[in-house]
Amino acid sequence: DAPSPTTHFGFQTVPSSSKQSRVANVFTSVASSYDTMNDLMSVGTHRLWKDYFVRSINPGIQGCEEGTGNGQMILDIAGGTGDIAFRMLEHCAVVKKDTASKIIVSDINPDMLAEGKRRARESGYEQSGRLSWLEANAEDLHDIPNSCIDLYTVAFGIRNFTHKPLALREAFRVLKPGGVFACLEFSKVHNRLLEAVYKRWSFGAIPLIGQLVAGDRESYQYLVESIEKFPGQLEWKGMIEEAGFLVPGGEEGKGWEDLMGGIACVHKGVKPTG
Fold it and tell me: What is the pLDDT averaged over residues 34-39?
């Protein structure tokens, strides 16, 4: 299907050609206050969600030491600040005793990548030699060959993509047969009372706090609107399947796993081996 000439930017309808630059401006604006942004959006729980996400995908190969095995090749999309990549490196080393797996951190925004590189230097992860950085659009990963990635991760990023089906197809292309697509994203809350409380917090408080903390109400307004516009759990599962992935059962056989009643959600897909 041809991409639509228009798309949503939060609650606005804009030309598809302009969304990328608009989103870039948002993340350039919030790059240095990224943790603050996520604390506000998740009511302080994003670190726990990210920890759980990494444990659930269990990256690395048991006992795979550098020089004795190839390890996994992991691609972390929209991962500029390194939040997920650093957790995965830690998991590989501590849980799997894997010092061979490597991670490509990809982001379309150079300011987010710069923030990640700064954090990697300060934390010592840069010295591991297992991180590389790629400025790229997830809808066109032309620098990455077909079927070379074992694990593709994207956390709190895919809702900002202009053409999500294109990004899913690119994920499918770069993954090896048997490779895993894993996504952590804000989603739809099921409980009506919790939904009402969370929406009041999102739309009433977050943009105002963004103005006070970061001097940037508009970026935070877009971010809460982007959550509202992102497909619900069932629709997103269907989109993953349409890209060619097999979706494992997940929570209660639904094909996804809700966190905090659906405020966030983990989706996974496996590229068929046949």
Answer: 70
